[in-house]
Amino acid sequence: PDVSVVNSSVSGHEGGNISVQCLYSSEYKNKVKQWCRYKDQSCYTVGRTDTSQNSSVQISDDGRRSFTVLMTGLRLTDSGWYFCSVGEQEAPVQLNVT
């Protein structure tokens, strides 16, 4: 696949942190990398590589077909489905915060 994730399901504790590693094919090296939340049949961007970072969501692209999403200060309401997104390609991740 053009975009995939190392772990498609991640768990964290309230107030803690989680990280997700997203992998992409070389043709997407110069594309914007995004982390979005799936809600109401739409994907809402919560972080991306070409804008100032949300303080609780940071994206770092290693430039070698991988980028990492770090979510800090988790809340119970952060639980749900997210997508690693590059260009038009997406890979789903389920987050469970307890």
Structural class based on helices, strands and sheet pairing: mainly beta
Using only C-alpha atoms, the radius of gyration works out to: 12 Å
Residue stretches low in confidence (pLDDT < 50, at least 5 long) are: none
* Count of discrete alpha- or pi-helical segments spanning 4 or more residues: 0
Element string (H = helix, E = strand): EEEEEEEEE
Helix % is: under 10%
- How large a portion of the residues is in β-strands, by DSSP E? over 45%
Mean pLDDT rating: 93
Largest sheet strand order: 2-9-8-4-5
Query: Main beta sheet, described?
Result: 5 strands, mixed
How would you describe the shape?
A: globular
Number of strands: 9
Distance between the termini: 31 Å
Protein name: Ig-like domain-containing protein
Organism: Cirrhinus mrigala (Mrigala)
Keywords: Membrane, Transmembrane
Subcellular location: Membrane
